[in-house]
Structure to design on (165 residues):
């Protein structure tokens, strides 16, 4: 297909469900729906955290681009050009934090990723250990290895690090 004829959606990450509603609809939900209809998306957002970028362009959501609303219009034009040809585009000054989070997630073992998922399900350490079938001491060792891989020092920092992943 001709890149000039390509339809690309610019998607913010937060939408009101209706004009009168305070309830939000997530762009994370919209992007896969657009993709099912052959429409590629670029996230155009004020959020710049690496975990948000990684989640948006990851396999689960599937955006092909990510541009900050603070970026110059030339960056948005570059993103449109790249995505129109089927390439992934992440705004240059967001790449380092995106790569850092993505590499950290890839360095985790299956069990460490399982622990992260339980962390976001708001389970206590005791509950996580029980669900994973390990002792709380083993769980502490898992946390220690994850802290080492991510450079964080505690559970709340870990939650923030992978907040949107």
């Amino acid at each position: 297909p001709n890149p000039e004829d390509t339809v690309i959606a610019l998607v913010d990450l937060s939408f009101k469900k209706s004009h009168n509603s305070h309830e939000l609809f997530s762009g994370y939900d919209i992007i896969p729906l657009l993709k099912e209809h052959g429409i590629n998306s670029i996230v155009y957002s004020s959020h710049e955290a690496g975990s948000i970028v990684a989640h948006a362009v990851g396999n689960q959501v599937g955006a092909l681009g990510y541009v900050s609303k603070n970026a110059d219009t030339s960056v948005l034009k570059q993103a449109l050009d790249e995505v129109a040809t089927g390439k992934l585009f992440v705004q240059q000054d967001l790449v380092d934090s995106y790569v850092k989070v993505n590499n950290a997630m890839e360095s985790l073992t299956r069990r460490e990723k399982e622990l992260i998922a339980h962390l976001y399900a708001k389970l206590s350490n005791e509950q996580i250990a029980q669900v994973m079938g390990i002792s709380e001491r083993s769980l502490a060792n898992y946390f220690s290895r994850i802290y080492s891989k991510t450079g964080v020092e505690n559970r709340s920092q870990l939650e923030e690090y992978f907040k949107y992943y």
User: Anything to note?
Assistant: The radius of gyration is 18 Å. The helical segments are 27-36, 50-57, 73-84, 92-107, 110-120, 125-132, 136-150, 155-161.
